[in-house]
Design goal:
Elements (H helix, E strand, L loop, with lengths): L6 E4 L8 E6 L5 E5 L9 H5 L9 E6 L2 E6 L2 H19 L4 E5 L6 H11 L4 E3 L6 H10 L17 E5 L3 H4 L16 E5 L5 H4 L3 E3 L6 H15 L4 H7 E2 L1 H8 L4 H8 L3 H13 L3 E5 L10 H14 L24 H4 L13 H6 L8 H5 L9 E5 L9 H8 L4 E6 L4 H5 L2 E4 L8 E6 L4 E7 L13 H11 L11 H8 L5 H9 L4 E4 L16 H4 L8 E2 L3 H5 L19 H6 L2 E5 L15 H6 L4 E4 L1 H5 L8 E6 L2 E9 L7 E4 L29 E7 L12 H12 L2 H4 L12 H16 L5 E5 L5 H6 L5 E6 L2 H13 L1 E9 L2 E8 L9 E5 L12 E7 L8 H6 L8 E11 L17 E3 L2 E3 L1 H9 L3 E16 L2 E14 L3
Parallel strand pairs: 6-7, 6-13, 8-9, 8-12, 9-10, 11-19, 13-14, 14-15, 20-24, 21-23, 26-27, 26-31, 27-30, 31-32
Antiparallel strand pairs: 1-2, 2-3, 4-5, 4-15, 16-17, 17-18, 20-25, 21-24, 22-23, 22-25, 28-29, 32-36, 33-34, 35-36
Length: 956
């Protein structure tokens, strides 16, 4: 039987909808996908069967053994969600329920429709801190969009001013992107606090202090006006407020700007001259690098006005306007419903942004939940939400816990699913259908109808859109939600396409190109340069607004006034004494899109660790070396990352990569001082300090990569990974899981409750996770920093790659994974000394000491903490001690051994020594022997028999 012919699909590991060819096995199963050279696109199939993937609806319930998520039916999950939402609506009004969409974005029209038909105006998305600030800047200033078009290369361009964007890590085809290809006769200027791969290609690189972009832009304007490098005809005819603006920029001399921005004055002059005289000149921009500041909105306006000052507006080689020229029928019902709904969150604080964006402002969600806004949010339904997107994340999470009801949809567990009352499993882009439209350039759009290439989703996953339709029906709105028929909803969206075009779209998975005028409904014939000559500028004045009337009427400055970041060495010098470094975050990694994709082995190989980049001068003065663990602190808290010491970052500035749940840099970001116009937080300019993390004893043999690899294999290796031979002691494999089972079995037999447990000497945490199947709270303690880091990574991300040694330096990379049925949020890991356990660790129902005592300098000190007034084991609780009694002076002084020696004619066994150390408060319940197999390499193993004693602490 021959294999089916390849078909096509679109990838959604980001939102570019890149086309991939699908290749099948002879049995019809998908064999592989081939498409653009993109590491994210390459993980699509790995995502399908990933062990951490959510497969079934889950309900968060409180049981006798604590809070856990348990599997329920779809009907029950939808009914619970609908009932909870209706209850909140009846008690507090529909506006008390928020609707949020992160990634993916394909179902947003459906979600907004659901929110508004339910009666809530509080539909919000991650765009509330992404591209929308730049979008509103452009609409206020020009009435048109041109940021997206700024990444399109034109042969007419003779100067490119690339401002804090690095396509090498963010946009396919990455390092081959035409916008950054050096070209003869084209000057390339790059502004960025980091000397990125794009900056390395530049003719001129301006290393700017984060948050001072507005000052640099105004300084370039100053030079353009002063030297006559302007388009006076364009300014006179098509611009409003030019004289006021021209007078304002006189304050921004190159010398003053150099002091503010830390850019050499000669480079500022050169940049202005090239941009003003080498045209056509094109601004190349990021969606948000210039807007993630407390004055980001006005900074961005100053920057985009450079095109107007020089007349590089909507001309070949300059900045072309961007039009959505392939738009199916909208089904969001925003225009039809918004006037009948209460005000959205943010309407009073950010009225200009709200007036342009059809959403509520999510950066006010915490305040809204806490009752500090006019609307108090009491419930939420969310698609693809991750709390680490929000600044000051810990405070935001505490607010989420106050919600009376929270439901979310996702592919994998994350900090949101841990808190959710109901969790719905989402279908991947390979499993779901969607109607996709996108603009490819000024005159070409594309419409695609993606059909699922995997007909049966993993488990019971459903597409986001289908979940919304099903929920709408459960809320009593079947008629408005096509009676749950997703294809009917897609056909309604296609009503604006001609029947012939719609048929072609359905039959061409690669999509259909739509060519035409600038927009599909503007009445213009063919290609049109300078569309404003026919249509004008759709702003308040009908012109390009250097002085914005809309901003003035809303009470803001009409001119793009420059202000220092709220936190900076200049604006807060006292704070800078404690936090002297400028923190900027969010530089893209080719491996990830924000917090996504860290479950995938091949991407973790590309970018394995959360890291902060710092200049050698800043590192040396703090005694920080390359690859060392460091603590980054701000007034909001601390985060631990690895140091990347590089002169590609400006001295006095540090850059941290975002999206790591284990090292969430947004924990340090200010959530109080938002941009006053957009509501955006200062992700890219605040203050911090970086310090070397205190080192553990250098003689600790449990630090080191090889030891970590060995223990990850011991704890998480499959049987075939550890012992691939058909012979051998297989009953000695999976030791940590057997330890946990012994604890649970003993507790059951003795009738001891299973609420709190602790594993002292937890290593990399397998027993802790296994105990969390039953215990509500499980703590793991170990002295090894690397072991605790690994356990925390497994807790937050569900997997961790490691290297299994086979022979010499040869081996194989494997992945430690946590079973998706385990509620990882029940676990906590702490670095501590078992001989001096922290006093707050008291009163556990079960304590596990597995193969620990004969590695301690004072085993009696450890056992002495088991009982007493503040004993680790509660009265009536369980203690399991396991040890092979391999007493060695390397670890334990001989006079501290619990047994294994003869004294004054008496033979003292280790069991007797344990009994003596515990005292009469503990009763020996049982004992047994348990085998343990440790693999050193493919042909060398340690076979150990550990002695197990089970003790019960007396009630009194």
């Amino acid at each position: 039987m021959s294999s089916p012919a390849p078909s096509k699909t679109t990838c959604y590991q980001c939102e570019l909808d890149c086309m991939f060819d699908v290749h099948y096995e002879s049995n019809g199963r998908v064999k592989k996908l081939s498409g653009p050279e993109c590491p994210r696109g390459n993980v699509q199939l790995e995502m399908q069967e990933h062990p951490q993937r959510l497969r079934y609806p889950l309900q968060r319930v409180k049981t006798a053994n604590g809070i856990r998520h348990q599997r329920i039916s779809w009907d029950k999950a939808l009914a619970i969600t609908a009932d909870a939402m209706n209850t909140l609506k009846q008690k507090h009004g529909a506006e008390s329920v928020a609707f949020f969409s992160g990634y993916t974005k394909e179902a947003r029209l459906y979600l907004q429709r659901l929110a508004h038909l339910f009666g809530s105006p509080n539909y919000m998305t991650e765009s509330g801190c992404c591209f929308t600030s730049a979008q509103v800047c452009e609409e206020l200033t020009y009435g048109y969009h041109f940021k997206h078009a700024s990444l399109l290369a034109a042969p007419e361009t003779r100067c490119r001013l690339i401002w804090s964007t690095n396509p090498v890590h963010s946009v396919v085809p990455f390092d081959k992107h035409p916008i950054i290809e050096p070209k003869e006769g084209v000057k390339m200027i790059v502004v960025d606090p980091r000397r990125t791969e794009t900056a390395e290609r530049a003719d001129l690189y301006l290393p700017i202090r984060p948050g001072s972009d507005g000052a640099l832009a105004l300084g370039i304007h100053h030079l353009l006006f002063k030297n006559g490098w302007i388009d006076q005809n364009f300014l006179d005819r098509w611009c409003h407020g030019v004289e006021e603006f021209r007078n304002y920029v006189k304050e921004f001399s190159p010398e003053r700007v150099a002091d503010i921005c830390q850019v050499p004055v000669t480079d500022i002059r050169q940049a202005a001259e090239w941009y003003g005289t080498q045209g056509p000149s094109q601004l190349v921009m990021s969606a948000c690098s210039t807007t993630h500041h407390t004055n980001g909105f006005q900074n961005h306006r100053a920057m985009i006005l450079l095109a107007a000052t020089t007349g590089n507006v909507d001309i070949p080689g300059g900045n072309r306007f961007f039009f959505r020229n392939a738009v199916p029928k909208s089904i969001d019902l925003f225009k039809e419903t918004i006037d009948q709904l209460p005000p959205r969150i943010g309407s009073d604080k950010f009225p200009v942004w709200i007036n342009h964006i059809q959403e509520a402002q999510p950066m006010l969600l915490k305040r809204s939940i806490d009752g500090q806004e006019s609307t108090q949010i009491r419930g939420m339904f969310a698609l693809g939400m991750n709390p680490i997107m929000w600044p000051n994340t810990s405070d935001f999470v505490e607010s989420l816990k106050k919600l009376e009801f929270f439901a979310c949809v996702d592919f994998f567990p994350n900090p949101a699913t841990e808190l959710a009352d109901i969790v719905f499993p989402a279908a991947t882009s390979l499993e779901r259908e969607a109607l996709i439209s996108a603009t490819r350039c000024q005159f070409r759009g594309i419409v695609q109808y993606r059909k699922p290439i995997i007909k049966t989703p993993v488990g019971e996953a459903r597409s986001d859109a289908q979940i919304i339709l099903d929920l709408g029906c459960h809320l009593g709105m079947s008629e408005q939600f096509w009676h749950g028929d997703l294809q009917a909803s897609i056909h309604e969206q296609a009503e604006t396409l001609t029947p012939e075009l719609w048929e072609e779209v359905q039959n061409k998975p690669e999509g259909v190109n739509i060519f035409g005028a600038v927009t599909m409904d503007d009445g213009l014939e063919g290609q049109t340069d300078r569309v404003y000559e026919i249509k004008g500028f759709p702003t308040f004045s009908g012109k390009v607004e250097f002085d914005s009337e809309e901003l003035r009427q809303a009470g803001y400055d009409g001119l793009p006034i420059y202000r220092e970041p709220t936190e900076s060495p200049l604006s807060t010098p006292e704070m800078a004494k404690k936090f002297p470094l400028v923190l900027t975050t969010g530089g893209r990694s080719i491996a990830y899109v924000h917090s996504q994709q860290r479950q995938f082995k091949q991407l973790r190989h590309l970018d394995p660790h959360p890291r902060i980049q710092m200049h050698p001068n800043d590192a040396d003065s703090r005694g920080i070396k390359e690859g060392q663990s460091v603590i980054i602190s701000s007034p909001r808290g601390t985060v631990e990352m690895l140091a990347e010491v590089t002169d590609s970052i400006l001295a006095g500035v540090v850059h941290a990569y975002h999206g790591w749940a284990t090292a969430n840099i947004n924990q340090l970001t200010d959530d109080q001082n938002l941009d006053p116009i957009s509501g955006f937080p200062a992700f890219k300019s605040s203050l911090c300090q970086v310090e070397a993390k205190g080192k553990i004893d250098a003689d600790n043999v449990y630090e080191g990569q090889q030891m970590l690899n060995d223990y990850l294999l011991l704890h998480y290796g499959m049987a075939e990974d550890t012992l691939p031979y058909p012979f051998g002691p297989r009953d000695a494999i999976d030791f940590p899981a057997r330890c946990a089972k012994l604890v649970l079995d003993s507790a059951t037999q003795l009738g001891i409750k299973t609420e709190r447990a602790i594993d002292v000497g937890c290593s990399v945490g397998r027993a802790v996770f296994e105990l969390a199947r039953t215990y509500q709270e499980v703590v793991g303690v170990d002295l090894s920093e690397s072991f605790i880091e690994a356990a925390n990574t497994l807790k937050s991300e569900g997997q961790l790659d490691y290297f299994r040694k086979d022979e010499g330096n040869l081996g194989q990379t494997l992945s430690a994974t946590i079973n998706s049925a385990i509620e990882r949020n029940r676990t906590a890991f702490r670095q501590a000394d078992a001989c001096a356990l922290p006093p707050d660790l008291v009163g556990f129902d079960a304590v596990l000491l597995a193969n620990l005592l004969d590695r301690l300098p004072s085993p009696k000190a450890c056992l002495g903490r088991m009982g007493g007034h503040k004993g680790l084991v509660r009265p009536g609780g369980l203690l399991v001690v396991m040890s092979p009694y391999t007493w060695m002076e390397q670890f334990t002084p001989i006079d501290a051994w619990l047994g294994g020696y003869e004294r004054e004619g008496n033979v003292l066994s280790s069991k007797d020594g344990i009994r003596a150390a515990l005292g009469e408060a503990f009763e020996l319940v049982s004992e047994e022997d348990m085998p343990l197999l440790i693999r050193e390499h493919a042909r060398k193993y340690q076979y150990i028999v550990t002695h197990v004693t089970v003790w019960r602490r007396q009630e009194t």
